[in-house]
Description:
Elements: E1 6-11, E2 17-22, E3 27-31, E4 40-50, E5 53-61, E6 69-75, E7 80-83, E8 95-104, E9 107-114, E10 117-123, E11 128-130, E12 139-147, E13 150-157, E14 160-166, E15 171-174, E16 188-190, E17 193-194
Amino acid sequence: xxxxxxxxxxxTGELGPMGEQWDGTSWTRQPMPLPAYVTNGGPExxxxxxxxxxxxxxxxxxxxxxxxxxLAEQWDGTSWTIQTVPxxxxxxxxxxxxxxxxxxxxxxxxxxxxxxxxxMYQWNGSAWAVQATPKREGELNxxxxxxPAACTAVGISTTKAVAEQWNGTTWTRTEPxxxxxxxxxxxCATATSCF
Length: 195
C-alpha cells in the first residue's frame, strides 16, 4: 500500500505458510497460522488496503486423502488471523483460492477453482460469501479490482486463456486471445484498462 510497506505471501519448503513484510529497507518474516489438523497448504495471493489491513488467500489440506479447502487470513498490523471461508454448495472436489483484490476494507474479491469450475468469493469486512457464478469450466488465477463494481479476473478454460469481468452484480466471460494458453496475473489501472 506504500513504498515502505509491502507484503508477500507463500509457502516454505516444509509446505507451511509464510508472510514477509518489506519496510523499505529489508524483509521481515510474519508467522502465518494454519487451521488445526492441517498437513500442508498456504496462501497464493495477497491484497493490502493499508499497512494494517491485508487479506491473503490460498488453500490447505487436512490429510493427503482430503480435498483442498479454501484458506483466507487477515493481517491487522501485528498478526495474521484465519478467517472462515464457506464451501460452495455442492462442492465435490478441491476448492482453491489463487488470487485476491481488495478495493476497499469492506470489499474483497477472491478467485480460484471448485474442482473444474471457476469460483469467486466476496468479503464484506466481516464474512466471506460465495458469489453466484455461471457453471462453466476453468480456473481463475488472479483478480484486480479498481472498485467494488469493477473487477477483472484471468485464468484458463480448458486450454484457452479467459478473463471474467465483474460489474458489481454479475460476472461476464471473455476470451482475450484465440491462442491456447493461460493467464496467471492481471493488474487494472481503471475499469477499462487492464494488463
